[in-house]
Amino acid sequence: MKTKELVVQKIRYFSKEELRGMKTPPKFTFPFFYEPDELTQIAVSDLQKYLEEEFDSNHNFGLDESHQGLVIGKMFGVMVVEDDHKNLGYISAFSGKLADSNIHPKFVPPVFDMLTENGFFKKGEAVVSEINDRVTKLENDESFQYLKEKFNQLSLQSETEIAAYKKVAKANKAERKRLREEQKPILSDLDYSELEEDLIKQSYRDQHELKLLISNWKERLAKLRLEIDEFENEIEELKSERREKSSALQNKLFKQYSFLNKQGVSKDLGEIFSETIFEKPPAAAGECAAPKLLQFAFTHNLKPISFAEFWWGTSPKSEIRQHKQFYPACSGKCRPILKHMLAGMEIDDNPLLKNLAEDKQLRIVYQDDEIIVVNKPAELLSVPGIEVQDSVYTRLQDELKTIEPLIVHRLDMSTSGLLVVAKTKEAHKFIQRQFLKRSVKKRYTALLSKKINQDEGEIHLPLRPNLLDRPRQLVDFEKGKKSVTKWKKIESNDISTRVHFWPVTGRTHQLRVHSAHPEGLNAPILGDDLYGKVLDRLYLHASYLEFIHPKTREILKFEVKEDF
Fold it and tell me: What pLDDT does residue 100 have?
């Protein structure tokens, strides 16, 4: 297909009616934190309508209970672009593959289609798969399994017999000692000498028998081990060949994923990720919507104007994804690629670099010679960040002058509420021990984004960091850390619910994930920019704090009502 025909097929131009009164964004969207502009929202609405009414695919998004097959929600992306004639339209893409294919009429093609029949990747994959089959066949071979089982049985038998003989030999030794002690006083020197000689022979015999027993077992087991080694060596050779071929195939694949930027400079995945802490590209790098859209735009002389991604389908079990909700580009896979692809472009400012708490007051609730308790405003850091230094720590540093504030615990930047800070090392150690023992009583108040029918409960969802999309957390029942939250409904209406949370554990984003996850309350906290929708603030407040004073040993209780 000719380039011009391909562009016409993939771009959907805006009508004059749609463009009436619209302003083109002066800078391209900062892809990791954004609010879609009006043009992008038109594009999103159009694509979502297409997905609802016209998209013909056997892919199961989990939205239709009658649809068969594995449920896989997808991230879709739209990019508003301008062509050579200043006409505005949008192009669209999806992450990964859709219905086991990379190619669909409405969407831009992948940077590289690894699913092409008879392509090097499919052929290489087939070779690796064939080696896999051979490894599996050998590992499950009946003779191999029999030899391993026989070896384990005989190893156990050998240990039992050797241990039993050692026990007998030890008893014989004790008996010889008894005879020596008993007979020496009553035998003549000559008779005792003959007895000693006989006892020594018995000792040598026991030692010889033990050595012989051990030697016989070693020889017997060694023969079996040789037969097992023949299988294991062949398996290891195949695995080594598989590693080499997989690595070669992967490296060749990385070179096929070559990404352009505005200046026409091209870099492949290997080059891009060699400059990161990952060193090597993570799985599926380059398959997200954003790189696909930018690649198509740069390849076909389209000017990128704005961008947005949204989730389509039910949420996966590990992550939190809301149907039709906007999401930023992922940090682990996309950030290094987009850093290259967006080079030279005018981009919206990163709002995460702004100090959103600059004009907000840090109020002191209580203070004595040992501690200080503050009411932290939303968006103020607990400790200095890389880009923004303003924090509870730096403000207290200015307030206390000669005393170094010692942070005992933290609140998320977006969370407001009570925070205790120590003034002495002794106080810090004493209160921190209470947090470690979980004897500190904490209560949070949150406003959830929908009506909750239950009155109270306890949430158990283990959490771990999403290494490819920090700072988000994943629910992981295998590798996640135990995370428990008790909750109770305070009030609700048709659109929201106010709840109290008592975190039993203190994992990162625990309350936010436990609120938003389908197996939790399935209701993101209002204003949650990571697991819900952006609002003026995160409606989460640390409202109650109770602990033992480090010096007086009195129980201190503090409560500050939320202002929402």
Answer: 83
Q: Do the Cβ atoms of 449 and 525 come closer than 8 Å?
A: yes
Q: Which candidate, 296, 341, 333, places its Cα nearest to that of 96?
A: 333
Could you read off the pLDDT of 456-499 as tens digits, one per residue? 999 999 999 998 888 899 999 999 999 999 999 999 999 999 99
Give Cα separations from 540 to 120, 389, 396, 504, 519 (angstroms): 52, 23, 23, 17, 20
Q: Is residue 412 annotated as a catalytic residue, yes or no?
A: yes
What dihedral angle (degrees, nearest 10) is formed by the CA atoms of 470, 473, 475, 481?
Answer: 110
In a 3-state reduction of DSSP, which class is residue 149? helix
- pLDDT, position 6: 66
Backbone CA torsion sign across 471, 475, 477, 481:
positive
Q: Please count the CA atoms within 13 angstroms of the CA of 513 that sit on its side-chain side.
A: 27
Q: Which residue out of 390, 412, 469, 528 is catalytically annotated?
A: 412
Residue 46, helix vs strand vs coil = helix
Burial 319-329 (b: 16+ CB within 10 A, else e): bbbbeebbbbb
Residues (pLDDT < 50) of the chain are none
Task: Give the tokens for residue 171.
Answer: 């008893």
Q: Which residues contact 551 (CB under 8 A, 6 or more apart)?
A: 369, 370, 427
DSSP string spanning 418-458?
EEEEESSHHHHHHHHHHHHTT-SEEEEEEEESS-----EEE
Rounded distance between C-alpha atoms, residue 316 and residue 71, angstroms:
9
Both tokens assigned to 356: 């959103």
The count of C-alpha atoms lying within 13 angstroms of the C-alpha of 148, restricted to the half-sphere facing its C-beta, is 12
Give the 3-state secondary structure of 103-127. CCCCCCCCCCCCCCCCCHHHHHHHH
**Cα–Cα distance for residue pair 374/371, rounded to 1 Å:** 10
Distance, CA of 6 to chain centre: 38
Sign of CA dihedral 423, 426, 432, 437: negative
CA distance 125 to 115: 10
- Considering Cα of 243, then 247, then 250, then 252, what sign does the dihedral take? negative
